[in-house]
Design brief:
The protein has 241 residues and is an alpha/beta fold. Helix content is 44%, strand content 20%. Helix 1 packs across helix 4 and helix 4 crosses helix 6. This is HAD-superfamily hydrolase, subfamily IB, PSPase-like, bacter.
Length: 241
């Protein structure tokens, strides 16, 4: 079994789904002090790109507006959000790359440091069956009235946690991949990029671009129209250079 792993934000998607969801929550009136919220979010965004974000702090802030909300109600909002704000931002080359891996018979996995309530519907849109993302804690009431607590649980799929989550998932699935490829844009994903057989830097940030250059990793710039993937150009294939 060959495994093709994909980061989401700024890799398959032009932008960050969590950042855009924050704006959506403000538009829906779910956040009372929007100015203070966005100021904190911007500082954390800068920390992420500097490789210094404490994900637990970001989650505490951005999941708080979900506290007490019915899971089914949030899901309806997320479906609208994904269809109108995210699906149009999926890179054209990403669709081609995913299809090439399908045609090659690879198993596709979306692995993201964003929360599952956002990542899973995007994966469905992309036709990716397997999802590893930040898990949200839920309280189950009567008549299946599940509500979000505003918290998270389990190992974060962030930095080295992505490697741990992947190992955990492979053990649960009883999969032993013969080859692993991972596509990512971020320095924060270096642990998983260094773990897989074939790392691919997509729209890389400056740190990842430097590492990819030194290590000789493949680089794709999906913000330009000339870097679409084809079945004969998949990482790990004989045509790959």
């Amino acid at each position: 079994m060959r495994l093709a792993l994909f980061d989401l934000d700024d890799t398959l998607l032009d932008g960050d789904c969590s950042d855009r969801w924050n704006l959506w929550m403000i538009e829906q009136g779910w956040i009372s002090d929007a100015e203070a919220f966005m100021a904190r979010a911007e500082k954390m965004h800068q920390a992420y790109h500097a490789g210094k974000l404490k994900l637990e702090e970001y989650l505490a802030m951005t999941l708080a507006p979900l506290r007490g909300r019915r899971v089914r109600d949030v899901q309806k909002e997320v479906e609208r959000f994904v269809a109108t704000h995210l699906q149009p931002r999926i890179f054209e080359q990403a669709w081609a790359c995913l299809e090439a891996h399908r045609q090659a018979g690879d198993t596709l996995v979306l692995i993201s440091a964003s929360s599952r309530h956002l990542v899973e519907p995007i994966a469905t849109t992309l036709g990716i069956e397997h999802v590893l993302a930040v898990e949200l804690s839920v309280e189950h009431g009567v008549n299946e009235d599940a509500r979000y607590t505003g918290g998270s649980e389990g190992i974060f799929s962030y930095r080295g946690g992505k490697v741990l989550r992947l190992k955990q998932w492979l053990a649960e699935q009883q999969f032993t991949p013969s080859h692993t490829t991972f596509y990512s844009d971020s320095r924060n994903d270096l642990p998983l990029l260094q773990y897989v057989d074939c790392p691919v830097a997509v729209n890389p940030d400056p740190v990842l671009a430097e590492v990819a250059s030194v290590e000789g990793w493949r680089r794709l710039d999906w913000r330009t129209p000339s870097s679409a993937s084809s079945p004969n150009a998949l990482p790990g294939k004989s045509a790959h250079v």
